[in-house]
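Appendix B, record 7
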Amino acid sequence: MKLAIITDQHFGARKGAQFVNDYFEEFYNNVFFPYLEEHQIDTVIDMGDTFDNRRNIDLASLEWSKRVYFDKLKSLGVHLHSIVGNHTAYYKDTNDVNSIDLLLTEYDNISVYSEASQIKIDGLDILLLPWINQENKESTFDIVKKSKAKVAMGHLELNGFRAHTTHVMEHGMDIDPFEKFDKVYSGHYHTRSDNGKIYYLGNPYEIYWNDVNDTRGFHIFDTETKEHTPVNNPYKLFHIIYYRDTNHKLFDARELKNKIVKVVVKEKTNQKQFEKFIDKLYASGVQDLKIVENYVLQESEDFEAEETENTINLLSRYIDESEFDCDKNIIKDIIQKLYKETCEVE
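Structure tokens (predicted):
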């Protein structure tokens, strides 16, 4: 039997902006649900952070999520196993109050897991591990220790995996308790990363700038072989354009409608031609446009910025290569939090 695994959907992200919901909807309408229907998938495991804000969700985003996602699952006869993540638990030290339980009571095809639970699908025992906090830590690791399941799926914060493309988590939980399983799948980190046994599957789509050019999507899991197969999302929200006296007449801007765009100017010898290029981008209907004519960090003999790097990647690498007399991971964590907060400001 084959089932779908999806994680970190973050419904209501970026304060429920309509263009973000529209971007998410492209994925569900054109990738996710067509695949489920074509391959007759009737079971989905959601590994956490279904909703974005632990404290609230605006009514428009809630209506959107039910209409676009939850209603569709029910109409197709799909059973959803939904794990509570840190973004869907109201309190930081308990999963008892969570948005999945409270907002989706009308759906009889949804099973919610706020505590570690073992389920059986097609004869395969799977241990489901929601967000581990102070209240459930001891009981969760006791269940992990006693479990005979070969596969675990959860919302874990483990050491040694990429939180995003340029930052490896170094202050999470140790992986040793999970080495007993044949396969471990987790949400929480939005980029794909693995050590051959533990797999972070990544979220379905881009949400922030540090997601740019990073492959996203969902996965199909085979209960017989215990193997997983990615189904990638071809749609992008963020685009970086490198301007080098680019001819505006030859530049195709049609795919940039409702997208977030950054123009990095590498060569500009004609101001009027550059303005025509920018006018064309605005005319295409971009949602947001930023123009960068100089890197924030000046290049030197010791540090050279790569064209493929976005802001957060650049800052992280700059910190790594600097001679700071302190814990660089603490500095990078602060930068990460500040960057995310900045991205959420409308």
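Remarks on this record: Residues 238-344 form one domain. The chain has two domains: 2-232, 238-344.
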